[in-house]
Design brief:
By secondary structure, the chain is mainly α. It is globular. The model has no long low-confidence stretch (mean pLDDT about 95).
């Protein structure tokens, strides 16, 4: 952007509305942002081994872990599709 005289402040931030049921899953996905497993071909998925720690640190009640995990897998799949698009 700098090459053409633009900076991030030149663009309006996109507002994304989330259903309340998805807010915790989005926050957990964001917290897992540094936990991608990488191979020669790029990201392969999230490291689920650290997920229980992230869920506890985010204060997610144990009874909700399964639902958050299901949503996380949907977000992970969508992110991988974007990351592997040339």
């Amino acid at each position: 952007m700098a090459e053409v005289g633009l900076c991030p402040e030149d663009f309006e931030a996109a507002e994304i509305a989330l259903w309340p049921d998805n807010v915790v899953t989005k926050e957990v996905f964001a917290a897992m942002g540094s936990q991608w497993r990488i191979s020669v071909g790029g990201p392969t998925g999230l490291d689920y081994g650290v997920l229980p720690v992230v869920l506890r640190m985010a204060g997610v009640p144990r009874r909700d872990w399964s639902d958050v995990f299901d949503g996380l897998r949907v977000m992970e799949s969508a992110a991988l599709d974007v990351l592997h698009t040339n």
